[in-house]
Sequence to fold (248 residues):
Amino acid sequence: MSHPLVAILSGAGISTDSGIPDYRGPNGLWRKDPDAEKLVTYEYYMGDPEIRRRSWQMRRQNRTLRAEPNAAHRAVAELEKSGVPVRVLTQNVDGLHQLAGMPDRKVLELHGTARSVICTDCHARGPMADAIARVEAGEADPPCLDCGGILKSATVYFGERLDPVVLGQAAAIAKACHVFIAVGTTLQVQPAAGLAGVAADHGARLVIVNAEPTPYDGLADEVVREPIGTALPALLRDLSGVGNSDRG
Ligand code: ZN
Fold:
């Protein structure tokens, strides 16, 4: 018998215990501060060297790169190690699922990653840490080392499309999974909201772990309002037990 596929959709709420604020959500910092939002808006970033210089200074101070995974990230990785097939679909760009031990290939980063840079011209990628080291060494707006093009964070900026390949893979997982757990996401931003709906439409057990109500609570089989750091590990331990008894 094959084990049930568990899809975990994570949003900003899973990383707040790691000290990362919610930048992008409906009440996020970027929505409240149009000036800060310009730093992550493709058109402004590409058109204005001053915006890029400010962006690099912001990245130098970004807490995301120094954050550590918390109990919820570790619980997801432990479920995967227990033998249950797990796929993570995340709206977060912090890379904390992988740092907690989830294999790269089992994490789909819907909004990209803040741990890499990408050239807007030749699309070469490299570590963010290397680019920041160049800023520290005096380059205000370090260009691509391959072609001289403009480098940006490998996150999806406002005005950019989400990667259609990643989106297609996420939709396929939502259709195929047996359990879909939405954790720390308000399910108000696409594509996250749509993925929860797709999973429910295809018969998955829908579990929502979030402090605030979401538009999908009525569709859910289970809604958990407890703090993520304790609620998610408990929930995943139960799933892991089911997987073990199937094997026996
Ligand atoms: Zn380049």
